[in-house]
Specification:
The protein is mainly α. About 45% of the residues lie in helices and about 0% in strands. The N and C termini lie far apart (about 70 Å).
């Protein structure tokens, strides 16, 4: 196996890559906090409940309905 020589990265490129990575992590944390606030405000999410009239989740019985 031949090993490719490692290409030297300039100090400026290293700083740029490090800064971009830090920026991505900062944005990821910011987005996570924002989404968590929205989820907390939304409340618990659960499947819709059937109403007294029987409307609600489809049962799947209509998938094979032949019209009669």
């Amino acid at each position: 196996m031949t090993e490719k020589p490692k290409r030297a990265i300039s100090p400026l490129a290293e700083v740029e890559m490090e800064t971009l990575e830090e920026g991505r992590e900062w944005m990821r944390k910011r987005l996570e906090k924002k989404l968590q606030r929205l989820a907390d405000a939304q409340g618990a999410i659960s499947p819709p409940q059937r109403s007294a009239t029987g409307e609600g989740l489809p049962t799947g019985d209509h998938d094979h309905d032949d019209g009669g």
